[in-house]
Task: structure prediction
Amino acid sequence: MRKSAPKNRTRRAAPPAMTGWVVPLNDFKRKYRENKKAIDRAIKRVLESGWFILGPEVKAFEESFAKYLGARHAIGVHSGTDAIAVALMALGVKAGDDVITVAHTATPTIAAIRQTGATPVFVDIDEATLAIDPGLIEAKITARTKAIVPVHLYGHPADMSTIMDIAGKHRLAVVEDCAQASGASWRGKKLGTWGTIGAFSFYSTKNLGTFGDGGAAVTDDPALAERMRRIRQYGESERYKSVIEGINSRLQVFQAAILNANIPHLDRWNRARKRIAARYQKGLAGLPLVLPSDSNGEHVWHLFVVRTDRRDALKSYLADYRIETGIHYPTPVHLQEAYRFLGYKKGDLPVTEKIAGEILSLPISPELTATEQQLVIKTIRQFFAKDEK
Ligand SMILES: *Cc1c(COP(=O)(O)O)cnc(C)c1O
Result:
């Protein structure tokens, strides 16, 4: 009698990134378990409603998100990238226009600007905040400049007061890239409500995330809100009546339902991130690392990014202990192959280029336990101690 093959032969090995880490950057199963009841109820509610495009679930989320931020209007769209693109389209930004932004960001910031046909113009960052250096903006403004897109990278606010002063003086629109900054403020006012339009992402890892893609654009201007609502659905003012050119970028109903279940927890999750950040500041003090500033407590710690000129060695040491870290981002956008046509070269953005080789993101999701964090801190201290001997 032939024996059947051992069972485990046919079982496929799980990808190491899903299971191999003792301390992962994110754990979505944990995230689901933590809010399982509300999420299950939300998904069931959508299935039983029979309503799968826009409608009450999306509207309810748009209203709670606008209220949470203190904005008049929120428009749910497919992603954070689309939130920036739809915002710029509503502002009339098009081919031949310039949009001032940074190269130290996630590529989607630039991809969104390019969706309009406009040209991104890069400004270097400030070494203390790692956000746009407001002192360098005016030198880049020309007759072609239409908008500024500051990025609140890692959840740390860019200097919105100075940026809004410059924009006002030159009559430029401001679209804040708040993808990493849900809940953060600048001088007591929520990010996303400083600029003409604020653009948010609900990608799973973000401070307010769904399980999949989602985004929203917020504004106080009713005419811009109306334009963005039209653009996200084929430019329609009513069914089958397209009054402007649009795209399909609706926030999915299932995603809106998950967001409705998650939004009541955003402040608590941001407080958890803040506690973890404070423990890192204390636990890593005195090491040859540049620790991030907390921007007078207004940072929401999407990422906790330390800097060291021995970044690669530290990263691989931590990986040996199965501690996952990240680099956000290893190659600045102006040096990415896809954007070579913009004509930038090494040396054009010295601070951006320098810090790209030094940054390391440590685990800081709200689900991270104190024990896991202790292990991260202990292992980093061990890495630096072994050199002193
Ligand atoms: C995530 C992110 C985006 C894009 O958001 P998606 O929802 O992934 O399209 C844009 N800018 C920054 C800074 C981001 O981190």
